[in-house]
Every structure is written in structure tokens, then in C-alpha cells.
């Protein structure tokens, strides 16, 4: 019986791609170790069309969930971008929930709604904004510092 089990393997090449000219790619990540634990952090990196680093950050986050850490990191980073005149942003995250909250296809938990509203206000100040999913492996520069 086990011999008849078939396991299909799908190999996908995962690489970070530069944004188009006059666009900036913002990769962010947040992590709450032990999800509701007291150790967490956020990280992010902003790069231009040739991949040069414009800005990078790491921030401690206290008690909260992984979803809260993800949204706080994105909020902090996007706020920095808008304050410093970077308003053509591609936000690249591996949290599909965060993307759905920003696209308003899912309603966030009430504790996180304020962060979503803050991000949406920042998005309204951008000339161009796009939020897209990336695999964790392509988001390593933001993922590793958030731990």
C-alpha cells in the first residue's frame, strides 16, 4: 500500500527582485518568539532599483503576537519612508494576513485595527503603493534581524 503513495516534489526558485525605476522596495518582518511571549522584534530594509540599501532597521517589540509584530514592523518602516520622502513604495512581506488586512479582504482583530488604520493613512500619502507577498526565503534581510 505504501508503495502506491506518490509524493510530488515542486522546486521553486526564490530570489529577491529589484523594483522598477523610481520605486523603492520595503521588506519588513516581525516576530514574537513563543507567540505571546515577551521576546520579539521587528526588522526591515528599504532598497532602490539597483538593490542599494537606503535604510535598515531593527526594533525590539514586547509582549504580543506574531501578527502584531508583523504589522508594527510594517507600520514603523512605512512611517519612516513617508517622513523621509520615499513615497513610491512596494511593501514586500511574507504575512498573507497583513496583505489581506491592508487590502480590506479580511478584518483584523480589534487590537490590531489601529495599526491597519495607521498604515492606510500612510498609504494615502504615497504616490505609489503596492503590498505584495514574498516567501520568507526572499525576505531574509528583514527576517533575520526580527528574531
From TrEMBL:
Gene3D superfamilies: Ribonuclease H-like superfamily/Ribonuclease H. GO terms for molecular function: nucleic acid binding; RNA-DNA hybrid ribonuclease activity. InterPro entries: RNase_H-like, RNase_H-like_dom_plant, RNaseH-like_sf, RNaseH_domain, RNaseH_sf. Residues 27-144 form the RNase H type-1 domain. It comes from the Eukaryota. PANTHER family: OS05G0353850 PROTEIN, RNASE H FAMILY PROTEIN. This is RNase H type-1 domain-containing protein.
Amino acid at each position: 500500500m505504501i508503495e502506491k503513495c506518490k509524493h510530488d516534489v515542486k522546486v521553486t526558485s526564490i530570489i529577491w527582485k529589484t523594483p522598477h525605476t523610481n520605486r523603492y522596495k520595503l521588506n519588513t518582518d516581525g516576530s514574537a518568539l513563543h507567540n505571546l511571549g515577551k521576546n520579539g522584534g521587528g526588522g526591515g530594509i528599504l532598497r532602490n532599483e539597483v538593490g542599494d540599501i537606503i535604510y535598515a532597521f531593527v526594533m525590539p517589540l514586547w509582549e504580543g503576537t506574531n501578527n502584531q509584530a508583523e504589522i508594527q514592523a510594517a507600520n514603523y518602516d512605512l512611517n519612516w519612508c513617508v517622513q523621509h520622502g520615499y513615497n513610491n513604495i512596494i511593501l514586500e512581506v511574507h504575512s498573507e494576513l497583513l496583505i489581506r488586512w491592508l487590502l480590506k479582504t479580511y478584518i483584523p482583530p480589534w487590537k490590531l485595527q489601529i495599526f491597519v488604520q495607521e498604515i492606510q493613512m500612510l498609504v494615502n500619502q504615497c504616490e505609489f503603493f503596492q503590498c505584495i507577498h514574498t516567501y520568507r526565503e526572499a525576505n531574509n534581510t528583514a527576517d533575520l534581524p526580527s528574531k
